[in-house]
Amino acid sequence: MFESLKVSLLKPNNLGQLVNKKAGAVFGFILFLALLLSVFGFSSFYHTSNMFLKEAQAVLNSTPDFTFKDDVLNMQTDQPIYSPNKMFIFDPNNQVKAENYPKGSYVVIFGKVKATFMENGVVVRETNYMNSGLRDISKQEFTELVDWLITKETVIWTTIFAGIFIYMIFSTMFTAFILGILAYIISNLQKKELTFGQAFKLAIFSLTVPFLIKGILVLAAWPVPIGPITWGLGAVYVVMAVRNIKTS
């Protein structure tokens, strides 16, 4: 494992040396790559979701009673009520104007008849309460839901991480399969004589750096096309690896 990781990270020109690794070593590396992406992806998801829960709990503790009866937010307040980091805003009188919307990564504004969802200061969705399933839901029910989620967070986060990890295993294998086809085609064109099994292994070990960069981009939450970048880097590494394999 460590030898393969060292080659894939520091000596990409020597990736061809790994095409004869045993199936167990290859599967172990698949698990490693899946775990790598899972940690990055889960960390980003956990940070955002946990902050949402803490913000929701804080703002619910500071609001008067409210309901969404008759598809309208009913709350007795003269001013909008903000959560500590302005991720949630209760604005039953529609006093918050577009030019004053918070510029945070994620913001939800509960207006009189609709909820507005924003990302980085841009409105991404607006939902009327009539179509949202919030009919007759009260502050108490919201509070009970948030409190329950917080008390069960260990079980919830463990389940979510397990789900992400399983998904990443299949995602890694699919990515390697597609790049393996590319490696197999190029190897035949260049008379490298790789079997498809060897091409698949080559693709697996070529994914280390692309997946590491993908994980960093996910964690940083930069607005860049992560998918195309990952596929492009993977293709570059595969082509480079095949070209550096010596013919027999």
Helical fraction: 55-70%
Q: Which strand order do you get reading across the main beta sheet? A: 3-4-5-6-7
Bin the strand percentage.
5-15%
Distance between the termini: 26 Å
Biggest sheet descriptor: 5 strands, mixed
Beta strand count? 7
What is the molecular shape?
elongated
Q: How many structural domains does the protein architecture include?
A: 2
The average pLDDT score comes to 85
**Uncertain segments:** none
Number of helices: 7
Rg, Å, rounded: 25 Å
Q: Find the structural class using helix and strand composition.
A: alpha+beta
SSE sequence, one letter per element? HHEEEEEEEHHHHH
Protein architecture, described:
The chain crosses the membrane at residues 25-46, 155-187. This protein has seven helices and seven strands; from the N terminus they run H-H-E-E-E-E-E-E-E-H-H-H-H-H. It is of the alpha+beta class. The chain has two domains: 2-45 and 155-243, no CATH class; 66-137, no CATH class. A five-stranded mixed sheet has the order 3-4-5-6-7. The model has no long low-confidence stretch (mean pLDDT 85).
Task: Give a short synopsis of this structure.
This protein has 7 helices and 7 strands; from the N terminus they run ααβββββββααααα. With 248 residues, it is α+β, with helices and mostly antiparallel strands.
Keywords:
248 residues, 2 domains, five-stranded mixed β-sheet, 7 helices, 11% strand, DUF1189, transmembrane
What's the SSE blueprint?
Layout: H1 2-10, H2 23-62, E1 66-67, E2 74-75, E3 81-82, E4 88-90, E5 106-110, E6 114-119, E7 122-128, H3 139-151, H4 153-189, H5 196-206, H6 208-220, H7 226-243
Parallel strand pairs: 4-5
Antiparallel strand pairs: 1-2, 3-4, 5-6, 6-7
Helix pairs in contact: 2-3, 2-4, 2-6, 4-5, 4-7, 6-7
Organism: Brevibacillus laterosporus (Bacillus laterosporus)
Transmembrane segments: 25-46, 155-187
InterPro entries: DUF1189 (IPR009574)
